Amino acid sequence: MEKICCCLNKNEKLEPVSEDVSVITGNGFTFYTDTVLLANFSMPESGEVCADFGTGCGAIPMIWCARSQPKKVYAVEIQQRACGMARRSAEMNGFENKIQVLECDIKKLHKKSAIPYGLDRIVCNPPYHEAGAGLHGRSAVKQAAFHETACTFSDIAAAAAAFLRWGGRFFCCMRPERLCGTLFSLHAAGLEPKRICFVQQRESCAPSLFLLQAVRGGKPGIKAEPVLIIENKDGDVSEKMRSIYGNYGQNREGKG
After folding, report:
1. 237 exposed, middle or buried (CB, 10 Å; 0-12, 13-18, 19+)?
2. N or C terminus of the chain: which is more exposed, having fewer CB within 10 Å?
3. pLDDT, tens digit, 9 for 90 and up, residues 136-178
4. How far is residue 1's CA from residue 134's CA, in Å, rounded to a whole number?
């Protein structure tokens, strides 16, 4: 308990992602259901070297290390405070040798040689709104998380293509209204979309999110997986979602 208390600053708290692993959140940096879904959708295989672009408080690397055995995860984030939280989370959970947090703009990664080339997989939970679109009046922290103020999706796709090995995989989630632009940006960067899963709150609702996998240098052809339903007809968490949540076990609303 003393170690955990020492890791927390004012207005911070712990969010569990498994029975033994928790993530430090607070001060505008947290994670939502879409983060948990994307972490599950992109789960690394044992021994892989991976990266999370725009890691925020580091939830995806923490979920990966709690549920799988990646060799190394480079957690890239431009905001200093979020980097500090992610580093403390990694140390608190004993992942400091597996998760390396880097304070860096992904558009400048190639100039700084901050991470190695030839990665096995890269994940990104990108801003859902283009610059100037969506809701306004948010803090600078939330503007960077929800709007393309620091980078565009095309910037993300180009960076992922540059650092993935041939045949390496890129994973992201996005709002359905941006599907066409997302596919175009990935294809232009040399990342061929291969697998997609739409997410609905319940059966009667239209999809509010999609999860996507692309492969560097992959052949054309995309597979649509069964729609993921978050709630059943009674409003309870669906069995599929229960298996994804695991010990996280909270039905939280997606962001955006």
Report:
1. middle
2. N
3. 555 554 544 454 456 899 999 999 999 999 999 999 999 999 9
4. 41
Instruction: Identify residue 195 by its one-letter amino acid code.
Output: R
50's tokens: 């991976």
What number of other Cβ atoms are within 10 A of residue 150's Cβ?
Answer: 17
Q: How many angstroms separate the CA atoms of 12 and 216, rounded?
A: 38
C-alpha torsion sign, points 113, 118, 124, 129: positive
- Cα angle 38, 43, 47; round to 5: 150
Residue with tokens 């997302």: 182
Which domains occur in the chain, in start order? 2-180 (3.40.50.150)
Question: Count of CB atoms within 10 A of residue 208's CB?
Answer: 16
Residue keyed to tokens 């100037």: 132
Tokens of 45: 């295989």
Task: Say what the pTM is.
Answer: 0.89
**DSSP-derived 3-state class of residue 2:** helix
